[in-house]
Amino acid sequence: MSAVDLARLQFATTTSFHFLFVLLTLGLVTLLVVMQTRFTITGAPVHERMTRFWGRIYVINYALGIVTGIVMEFQFGLNWSGLATYAGDVFGAPLAMETLIAFFLESTFLGLWIFGWGRLNRWLHLALLYLTALTAFASAFWIMAANGFLQHPVGYRVDGNVLRLDDFGALLTNPTFTSALTHVVFAAITAGGVFMTGVSAYHFIKRTPEVDFFRRSLRMGVVTTVLATPALIGAGFAQFPVIAKFQPDKTEAAPWIGAPLGFMILIGMGLTMVSWLTLPLLVKDAVIRMRFPLYLMVIGIPFPFVAAIFGWMFREIGRQPWLIYGLLRTEDAVSHVDASQILLSLIVFTFLFLVLACVDWVLIARAVRRGPDVAPAPVSPMVVTLW
Fold it and tell me: Tens digit of pLDDT for each residue in 128-161?
């Protein structure tokens, strides 16, 4: 394989892995906001226990996701120096905003939320979670703004052989950014809903004594999926006119490039249909008594993540041979390094990501099997109970 092919493969591998962590993080934090809001208003212990249990899983995934994001950033300096040289002034602006938001504000708010259990006023503690959620989605906002520039470059002027940022507002109103952002947001919420549904179903399969706890969680997961999937599909189809206008080559791509798009649509339609069929079965816990749907819910956990990877493949592969559509070809953006060096970094990064994914899965699986705490400790921080 050439240096270009290896660099592309490394980019695809690292971003795909990281994207999976991001989806679950955004999905779970949205559901946590609902749970803790209900606890703050009602004071019901079950809502606090739900917030703690699902919050523990969220924190695990967030921590591992941060590590994958740091590793992913290395590839830009290692493999894509041509991109940084040519368009760093424009492309780097939203990435800098994302770094400030994700690694400073979001981490700070989350840390205060974790250690604030039992120490802070309930409303202040809830406000910290809202701020954590807002900064998490703001992080996704800036990442998609940067990617939108690659899909349809706007807001720049040519200065010699490089691009300079000329109109920051144009980056934020880029049609390829705004249309995709909504799709990503509802994809994350769908992933969170399906994950919560599947985990709750697993506990009912294991005949959990925590019937009320996981009944509430199952209902929340199903209702979330029911509400999110139509918006997800609508936002997805709304992108087709934008793609046809600004990237006509993508719509005329070979059938093999369109295959991931087709699989993504099939999964989205399937999740929508199944969730709406499940909704009436929540009445009088029919879905729990039937048991067979519970197995389908567990099996369905990976599907939103698979669909997201298919969609990401279509968005990125369909842009080729351009890294910045119409301005910078991929082959011209690759660093001038030997293919063997890129292969070595590919092997190291892939191995590291596999390790991180396995650690994430093991820790989440352990937290899931452990189940909720019998009673919330009044002052001990959540971080103590992660392991």
Answer: 999 999 999 999 999 999 999 999 999 899 988 8
Q: How many Å apart are CA 38 and CA 58, to the nearest integer?
A: 18
Residue 84, burial from CB neighbour count under 10 angstroms (0-12, 13-18, 19+): middle
| Amino acid identity for residue 198 in this structure | G
Residue of 205, 184, 367 lying closest to 290 (CA atoms): 205
Residue 323, H or E segment: strand 322-324
Q: Hey, is 372 helix, strand or coil?
A: coil
Contacts 24+ apart (CB under 8 A), 366-373: 367/53, 367/56, 367/57, 367/60, 368/57, 368/199, 368/202, 371/53, 371/203, 371/208, 371/210, 372/49, 372/50, 372/52, 372/53, 372/210, 372/213, 373/49, 373/52, 373/53
Tell me if the pTM is above 0.70: yes
DSSP state of 279: G
**Residue 272 DSSP symbol:** H
Which is nearest to 233 in space by CA: 270, 178, 192, 278?
A: 270
What is the Cα–Cα distance from 194 to 282, expressed in whole angstroms?
Answer: 15
Query: 114 vs 196, 201, 333, CA distance in Å?
Result: 21, 27, 42
Token pair listed for 258: 């369109």
For the packed helices 211-237 and 239-246, what is the interaxial angle rounded to 10 degrees? 40
Residues 130 and 134: their CA atoms lie apart, in Å, by: 6
3-state secondary structure 150-169: HHCCCCEEEECCEEEECCHH
Question: CA–CA separation, 112 vs 117, rounded Å?
Answer: 9
pLDDT of residue 253: 60
Question: pLDDT tens across 298-347, in order?
Answer: 999 999 999 999 998 888 888 888 899 989 998 888 888 888 888 888 89
- Is the omega angle on the peptide bond into residue 321 within 30 degrees of 0, that is, cis? yes
pLDDT digits (tens, 9 = 90+) for 78-130: 788 888 888 888 988 888 888 887 778 888 999 999 999 888 899 999 999 99
| Residue 104 C-beta-side C-alpha neighbours within 13 Å | 6
Instruction: Using alpha carbons only, give the angle 228, 234, 238 rounded to the nearest 5 degrees.
Output: 140
